[in-house]
Amino acid sequence: MKPxxxxxxxxxxxxxxxxxxxxxxxxxxxxxxxxxxxxxxxxETGELTLEWKGIxxxxxxxxxxxxxxxxxxxYWSQYSAGDLxxxxxxxxxxxxxxxxxxxxxxxxxHLTLVKNENYYLSDxxxxxxxxxxxxxxxxxxxxxxxxxxxxxxxxxHDGLTIRESSLLLDAERNGLxxxxxxxxxxxxxxxxxxxxxxxxxxxxxxxxxDPRVRQAIVMCTDRxxxxxxxxxxxxxxxxxxIPSLHPLIxxxxxxxxxxxxxxxxxxxxxxxxxxxxxxIREDQTGGTPFKVTLLGAKGNELSExxxxxxxxxxxxxxxxxxxxxxxxxxxxxxxxxxLLFGRQFDLAxxxxxxxxxxxxxxxxxxxxxxxxxxxxxNYNNVTGFRNSEFDTACEAxxxxxxxxxEFEENHQEALRIWSEQMPIIPLFMHLKVAATRPEVENFIxxxxxxxxxxxxxxxxxxxxx
Length: 465
Known about the structure:
This protein is of the alpha+beta class. The chain has three domains: about 1-95, Alpha-Beta Complex (Dipeptide-binding Protein, domain 1); about 100-175 and about 435-465, Periplasmic binding protein-like II (D-Maltodextrin-Binding Protein, domain 2), CATH 3.40.190.10; about 185-430, Dipeptide-binding Protein, Domain 3 (Dipeptide-binding Protein, domain 3), CATH 3.10.105.10. About 25% of the residues lie in helices and about 20% in strands. A six-stranded mixed β-sheet has the order 6-13-7-12-10-11, sandwiched between helices. A three-stranded antiparallel β-sheet has the order 3-4-5, with no helix packed on it. Strand 8 and strand 9 form a beta hairpin. It starts with 13 loop residues before the first helix and ends with a strand.
C-alpha cells in the first residue's frame, strides 16, 4: 500500500483494509458475499502490507485484485456494521485519504469538496484546485445549458447523452466548449433465437440454425450507417464480443462486411428462396415466408432507431421484420415468463456490459437458461447457441491465469470459432459523451475508467484574469 494519510492526519494502515474486509463480511452489510466466501484468510503482514489467501480448489484469475479499500478503523470502529449504514460519519461526511474531502452536502442541489491538506501528493502541488462544487442536474438539457452559460465547467457522461451531441459539437465549433467522445464498456447487439424453447420452436421454421443464414444477416446489416447516422460517426462497429483494439483479438478473426449481394447469395445457398417473387424469401420445406419478429425494450430511443435501420436492411435481403417492444421489466424478466431470458424470440436487441477479459461465457452451452437451472438470471446464453469446440476453448481460457499462453491462445481460439458461427449480430460500442469549458485543463477521458473524473487531482482551470 502507498503511505496514505486520512484527512484528520491519521496514517492509513493495512489494518484499515482488514477492517474494510471485516465490514464486508459482516451479515449486516448488504453487499454480495462471493469475494468473502472465496477468501480463506485476509490479514495484515506489516504497516502497509497485506496477505490474501483463497479457499482450496478455487482458481481466481483476478486474485491480485483481492484488496479491500481501506476504511478508517479509528473513526468507524465505534459503530456496528448495521449502524454504519446510517451514521453521518460514514454516509455524509466521511474521512478521506484522497485529494479532496467533503465540506458540504445539500440534498438535491450540490456537493462541495475541498482540498485534503493531508493528501500524499500535496508536495507536488496536487490537487491543482482548492474547491470543487458538484451540481445535481435533473436533465441532460439543463446540464448542456449550464455548460453553455458557464455555470458549470464540466459535464460528465452520466448527465449528457448522445442526443446532445449536435448541440455540443456546434458549441465546440464556435469556441464555447470542448467535446469528448469515448467508447464505453457497453455494446449493442441483436441476438439470434438459434435454439428457443420447444414450445416456441414448434411455432416457426428453424430460421437460424444454419450458420450461413446468420452470416448472411450480419452482412446484410449496415452497421456503419447506424454509427454514422445515430452516433455521429464517433463509435466503432463491432466484429466480436470485444472491440477491434483489444489485445486478444486474433489477426485471423473472420469479419463479415456489409455486402448485400454476398448476403443474398449465401441465403440462396442456405435454401431460403423467393419462389413466388413477392420480395420475401420462404422456407422451402413448408413455404413459410421468412417473416420474423425483432424484440426490444420500450423507451430505448437508440435501440428503436437501430431497429428501424435493421428493418430496412433486411428487406433488401428478402426478410420481413416485425418490430415489437416490451416494457423493460417484462423484457428482461427471468424465464420462462420473460420472452428474452425465456428464449421465446426470433431476434432480440439489447446491450451487454463488457469486461476487460473477453466474456466468452455468455455463449457457453452450460449458460443457456432453461428449467434445469430454474431459469436463473445468471445464465445468459439466451441464443441457445451450442458448439462443443467453442465450449472447450472458452472453458480453458476461463480456467487459465491472465498473462499465460493458455489464457491468450484459448481466448483467441474461442473468438475465431465464434466469428465463424456468429450467434449474434455485434453492432457497436456505446459512447460516453462529455464536455468542458475551454478553460478547463487536463480533462482526459480514459476508456479504462468508469468516470471521466478519474484524475480529479490533476484537473485545473485557467484563470480568466
